[in-house]
Amino acid sequence: MRLDQPRIRRSRLLPEYDPEAFGRMSERIARFLGTGRFIVWMTVIIIAWVVWNIFAPASLKFDEYPFIFLTLMLSLQASYAAPLILLAQNRQDDRDRVNLEQDRKQNERSIADTEYLTREIAALRMGLGEVATRDWIRSELQDLVRELEERGQERDLFPPDGERRSDVPDR
């Protein structure tokens, strides 16, 4: 057998099917079986079956009173419904598992981002501890103004409004 050439397809005894298409179909059936519409239709069919087989002429009846054929049909429906519902649940479990894994990874990334931002904020706070704040600068300037006013009273550095004095002559 050569690896550079396609394999020869062997004929199979069983028919081939697409598992995804079958899974989607089973989910649609399971979704329908879980609705009120299904229960209403099933009830209507069973009532029609029973009424027909009780009141129809003897030649048209197909299932006489203990309704064995009806019981067989309901058993057949249940025997197909159960595996289809289980298949749909398994597919939903697989999707949930993938979603949970993605959520877990997203949570890990969020936690890592939060920790990084926390470290950055702590570094900024430490850096701001060494930076002069507006209140500190204002208080220092007020202290300087008071000190200059005290000295100015001694040398009249701050003349009243209207008078202008300068240490540097006008040019």
Description:
This protein is an all-alpha fold. The protein has helices at residues 19-33, 36-55, 68-129, 134-155. It is elongated. The termini are far apart. The model has no long low-confidence stretch (mean pLDDT 86).
Label this structure with key terms.
mainly alpha; 171 residues; 4 helices; elongated
How many strand segments?
A: 0
What would you call the structural class? Answer: mainly alpha
State the helical fraction.
55-70%
Counted by DSSP, the helix tally is: 4
Give the C-alpha Rg.
45 Å
What is the percentage of strand-forming residues? under 5%
Taking all residues together, what is the mean pLDDT?
86
Could you give the distance between the termini? 105 Å
SSE order, one letter for each helix or strand: HHHH
Question: Low-confidence spans: pLDDT under 50, at least 5 residues?
Answer: none
**How does the overall form come out from the CA principal axes?**
elongated
User: Major β-sheet, in short?
Assistant: none
Task: Offer a concise description of the structure.
The protein has 171 residues and is mainly α. It is 70% helix and 0% strand.
Describe the secondary structure blueprint for this structure.
Blueprint: H1 19-33, H2 36-55, H3 68-129, H4 134-155
